[in-house]
Each structure stands twice: as C-alpha cells, then as structure tokens.
Amino acid sequence: MEYISTRGSAQLPVNGPLDFEGATLAGLASDGGLYVPREWPRFSLDEIAAMRGLPYAELAARVMKPFVGDSLAPERLRELCEQAYGRFAHAAVTPLAQLDERNWLLELFHGPTLAFKDVALQLLGLLFEEFLSRRDERLTIVGATSGDTGSAAIDAVAGRERIDIFMLHPNGRVSDVQRRQMTTVKAPNVHNIAIEGSFDDAQAMVKRVFGDTELTGRFRISAVNSINWARLMAQVVYYFAAALQLGGPARKVAFSVPTGNFGDVFAGHVAARMGLPIERLIVATNVNDILHRALSAGDYSTGTVTPTAAPSMDIQVSSNFERLLFDVGGRDGLALAEQMRGFEASKAMRLTNAQREGAATLFSSTSADADQMSQAMRWAYESCGEVIDPHTAIGLHAAREADLPGDVPVVTLATAHPAKFRDAVERATGLRPPLPARMGDLFERDESYVELPGEYEAVTAYVAEHATPSR
Ligand SMILES: *Cc1c(COP(=O)(O)O)cnc(C)c1O
C-alpha cells in the first residue's frame, strides 16, 4: 500500500513512494498534510461475514493487513496484535454492553490507562520498535498532554530500547489520576516534565521543538498525536468487531462517537469505505462545537475553547477533519492545500459543496451542553445500571437524539473508564466509581517528574541532555 499526502505535494523519497513503514515513522507529511492510503482496500460482504467470531487480535490483523502491505509479514503483524491486545483487561478487548433495545456501548477503555487511546497506542509503540530496530535508528517522542494522550503514549513506549519519550504537562492542571498514570511509570526512557503555564503553553513549546533545526538535526523527533495514520488504522478494527457482533454485515449499524480531533470517527469512515455496512456516523461534540457547525452548516471556524467536564473534546481545531475533507471533496491535494492555507491565515473556512454533500451521505452531528451530558450519565446509571464517563455521555446523548430507522442498532463508543473522571461522574450520579483493581495502588506508587519553568530553553536543554542521538 502506498501513502499520499492530503496536500498533494509531499516529495516522494528518493527510494520510491512511501509505504506503511515510512508513513508510520514520518507522522506528518513534509508539506504539512496528513498521510492517507492512495486507495481504500475493499472487502466483499462474504469476506466480512467470514470474520465473525474471530479473536480480536486475529480480526485486527485481517482488517489491517491491506494497509500494512509488505511492511510486515502477516504472521509478524498478528504477533504484534496479540502482544498489544494481550495487555487489555478484558478477553474480548472491546466488549459491547447493552443499554436498551436499541442502544449499545462499545467499551474501549479496558487498556492499561483506561482510555480508548490505548487501542491504537499499544500497537503503535510496537510498530515503532519493530521499524526502528530494522533500520537501527532511534526516536525521540516529544509531546504535550492535557491528560489522556500522555498516559497512553507513555505506557505504550515505556521500557522500549529505541525510544525516548518526553511528555510535558501543565504543572498542577491535570487531574491526580492522570498525573499519577504518567509519573508513576518507572522506566529509564520515560521523562515527565511538569511545566509552568497552561496546556496551550506546553503545546506551543512542542510545536517549536519540531521546527528547531538544532534539535531535529541531532534527534529523530516524532509526535504521537492522532495525525499518525497507524493510530487511525488500529481504530478501524473495533467498528468491524462491533458490527459483526450486532448482525453485520447483513444488518446496518450506526455509531455515535464522542469527538475531538476527529481521529476516532474518521476510522469509522474508513471502515465504511472498506465495505462495512454503516447506516450513520454521528459526530458528538460538547459546547466546543466547531465540527457540529462544519457538518451542519459548512462553517469551519474556530472560537475560544470553553473548558468542560469532557476535556479530551475541548478543542478548537480538529486535525483529522482534513482527511475527511480530502476524501469526500474529490481527493484534490493541491486544492485542499489552498483551502487549508486560507484556514490557517483566517482561522475560518467554508466547506465546498462537494465536501458538504460527501460528508452528509454518512455523517450527522450533535452538540451537547453540560446539562444534557449529566442527564445522559444519569439515564445510563438509573435506567440501565451502567456508569459512564462524561465523554461517553456526550456520545450517548447524541445517539438517543438521532433520527434513524427503528431496526438500526446504535453503538456509542465508550471512550474512557468512568473512574478516570470520577468527580464529574459523582456530580451527575452521586456515585464515585472506584479505580479498577489493576490500578488500585496508583496512589501508593512513587512519582517521578521534573518541574521546569515555562521557558523554551529550559525544556530543550533538558531534552538534549537526556535523549539519545538518532544513530
Ligand atoms: C481523545 C479522546 C476523545 C476524542 O477522540 P478523537 O479521536 O480526538 O476525536 C474522546 N474521548 C476521550 C476519553 C478521549 O481520550
């Protein structure tokens, strides 16, 4: 499989077009675009039906094989999937729970850090290690986190020989559970940095690192945010898993997805492109509703971020939305590059008619405020006995509002374990969800992190001193 940039002009490396290995290690394309496969592989309905009943790791290897192409032997891909998903606390990896005659929850939080990001990052850590050892290279991951991504990324690469990870979090501004999930990981390649300032300050420093030729000349610096194609690819699998459980491919299924950076729901679009019958993808947002405005009115313009009880959805710009605009808008990279330049200059753009109509064939959207979120949490608890987190609640609200044929099951993606956001859950339901047994001693473990002032030079000096050069 070959990968191309959404901005159409990424220079092909001298040794030929970019394959899966190249796209995985590169992350962002050099023209600022995002990598997508040159064409979508397609399964027939018979091929999809034949996947029913497979163990998750085997299903994952089957669904991902066309994207991985020659970059990994099929047996090796399957071994890596078994290793990644063997770390989940549930044998089904992403089990379904029934709420009522039509609504289901797809529990994506049984990984090591209790958020759905583990599904993709556990595999990505293994893919990085595999490709780096093949090339005898090293990688330095630099990231900023307001919570979930940092812990999932650290867990995924802790102890890996060829990777150093530096994770910046705003000092005093992440929850105790989130901080401890990062700072209690004991591995020589894990470097937690508590930085004075806000998440945006930390994020701005990370962006500067990527343009810093002094650092990028010595280290192969990489990001782990959801722009990495391999992360999206790993998320396609659970759409297949859920649909097969609920009667697919003979029966269409709808999905409601708590959305921030548009990575998770874009994976649903990919599943549909691959031939999985999907009735609808519902993009669920909180009051930070740029995606709802874009999909319902064609208006993609940033505002200021309002902090909510679902912080992983508090976004201004949704990076992976570019992939959808590319795919439904005629796959014209140069035109999209122009459109994105306009957006970057004015922080606003209109979707083209082709983009709007293309998106409307599969997507709809809903935005939920704080009351609607709390009501959804209460309904799930009081009527169905299920405790859900604030992100999942926004998805469930959208699922219950959706106007769909009566025989279509609606699967809400449960993106975080309720214990991760127990204050908000307690406010809505009166119940304080306990941490799962495997995390029970989180508050007894020793923490390790450095505190640095909010100065760029302090951060780069720390990275340069503790990272290992790329070769
Ligand atoms: C990251 C995250 C989201 C948003 O997912 P995207 O792929 O960025 O749309 C939703 N819920 C939780 C709990 C998350 O951690």
UniProtKB/TrEMBL annotation:
Residues 2-85 form the Threonine synthase N-terminal domain. Signal peptide: none annotated. Residues 94-350 form the Tryptophan synthase beta chain-like PALP domain. PROSITE patterns: DEHYDRATASE_SER_THR. InterPro entries: Ser/Thr_deHydtase_PyrdxlP-BS, Thr_synth_N, Thr_synth_N_sf, Thr_synthase-like, Threonine_Synthase, TrpB-like_PALP, TrpB-like_PALP_sf. It catalyses: O-phospho-L-homoserine + H2O = L-threonine + phosphate. Its EC number is 4.2.3.1. Its cofactor is pyridoxal 5'-phosphate. The modification N6-(pyridoxal phosphate)lysine is found at K117. Pathway: Amino-acid biosynthesis; L-threonine biosynthesis; L-threonine from L-aspartate: step 5/5. One of its GO terms (biological process) is threonine biosynthetic process. Keywords: Amino-acid biosynthesis, Lyase, Pyridoxal phosphate, Threonine biosynthesis. Pfam families: PALP, THR4_C, Thr_synth_N. GO terms for molecular function: pyridoxal phosphate binding; threonine synthase activity. It is an enzyme of class 4 (lyase). Belongs to the threonine synthase family. This is Threonine synthase. The lineage of its organism: Bacteria, Pseudomonadati, Pseudomonadota, Alphaproteobacteria, Sphingomonadales.
